[in-house]
């Protein structure tokens, strides 16, 4: 039985159609990245799978049970976007104990599990501090810990590493990597390093545009003085900005190189939308025909 199934799902907010006729089966143990532009409906899909939002038509099922029902919710941990899922005026540990008891853990069990997760996410020293004193990155890690308190089979992660520093990001990405194969994970993402963890990338723009096994190329827009960069294709846009194309395995390398360049170079944007294997293959083909002409 699929872990999560969207069957003909449509959701509107007044006149806005957030998602339309979505059909998607997520298998047990699969890691899915939902990718698409702002407003594409990624968060809406996650909220429906978490059972906190009902579809207008169609069905959202968790192990065959409608997602809003309590038996379905027990299987699911939802890491909400930004910092909406925890209480600010109590400590991190009290938050975890509170949410743990909502899922039926005893206070003692919830405390043990909460401390274990706080340790794992590098927050043990701040366990008793008010969440209001946390940085964005610490808050995101706490959000993930909260979603994991009841050891759910399915994790719904909304941009899990957005807006956080390199160390915080590494802790979360390593954790997700360790969960691969043991949990079903659906992740809404704009981040190539998150997307790289997925078994399947579902590109969404109100409805499903394409489903592909892997992401191949990331496109980075930079502005300023760009010294030569061996091993990367570059397009000069002529206005002092450049597009650099990096395969996913070289992306970290590229970011390190860009970071080590002097302050005259700025990263303006990063685009994964055009990065799919299908389109990459088309571009490669065109380049080969032209004998290696410009990309755009
Ligand atoms: N509670 C709401 N009330 C009204 N409109 C909403 C609500 N939630 C979402 N929408 C609208 O539904 C559409 C899909 O939004 P959603 O947040 O699912 O997109 P997203 O793909 O997660 O975007 P982003 O990448 O910016 O996070 C958008 O047009 C948004 O404005």
From TrEMBL:
Keywords: ATP-binding, Nucleotide-binding, Transport
Coiled coil: none
Superkingdom to which the source organism belongs: Archaea
InterPro entries: AAA+_ATPase, ABC_transporter-like_ATP-bd, ABC_transporter_ATP-binding, P-loop_NTPase
MF annotations from Gene Ontology: ATP binding; ATP hydrolysis activity
Entry-linked Pfam families: ABC_tran (PF00005)
PROSITE patterns given in the database record: ABC_TRANSPORTER_2 (PS50893)
Alphabetized SMART domains for the sequence: AAA
Keyword Cytoplasm appears in the UniProt entry: no
Domain ABC transporter: 4-231
Keyword ATP-binding on entry: yes
Similarity remark: Belongs to the ABC transporter superfamily.
PANTHER family membership: ABC TRANSPORTER ATP-BINDING PROTEIN, ABC TRANSPORTER ATP-BINDING PROTEIN NATA
Identification of the protein by name: ABC transporter related
């Amino acid at each position: 039985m699929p872990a999560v199934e969207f069957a003909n799902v449509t959701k509107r907010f007044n006149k806005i159609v957030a998602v339309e006729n979505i059909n998607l089966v997520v298998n047990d143990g699969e890691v899915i990245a939902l990718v698409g532009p702002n407003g594409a409906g990624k968060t809406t899909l996650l909220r429906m799978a978490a059972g906190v939002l009902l579809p207008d038509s169609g069905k959202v099922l968790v192990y065959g049970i409608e997602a809003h029902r309590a038996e379905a919710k027990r299987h699911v941990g939802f890491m909400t976007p930004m910092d909406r899922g925890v209480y600010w005026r109590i400590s991190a540990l009290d938050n975890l104990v509170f949410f743990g008891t909502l899922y039926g853990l005893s206070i003692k069990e919830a405390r043990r599990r909460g401390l274990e997760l706080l340790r794992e996410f590098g927050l043990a020293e701040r366990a008793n501090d008010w969440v209001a004193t946390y940085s964005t990155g610490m808050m995101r890690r706490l959000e993930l810990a909260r979603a994991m308190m009841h050891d759910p089979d399915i994790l719904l992660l909304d941009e899990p590493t957005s807006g956080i520093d390199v160390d915080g990001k590494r802790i979360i990405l390593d954790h997700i990597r360790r969960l691969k194969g043991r949990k079903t994970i659906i992740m809404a993402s704009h981040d190539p390093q998150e997307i790289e963890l997925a078994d399947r990338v579902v590109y969404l723009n109100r409805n499903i545009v394409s489903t592909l096994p892997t992401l191949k190329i990331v496109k980075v827009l930079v502005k300023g003085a760009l010294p030569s960069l061996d091993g990367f294709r570059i397009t000069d846009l002529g206005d002092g900005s450049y597009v650099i194309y990096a395969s996913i395995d070289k992306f970290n390398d590229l970011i390190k190189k860009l970071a080590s360049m002097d302050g005259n170079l700025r990263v303006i944007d990063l685009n994964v939308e055009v990065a799919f294997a299908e389109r990459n293959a088309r571009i490669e083909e065109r380049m080969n025909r032209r004998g290696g002409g410009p990309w755009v």
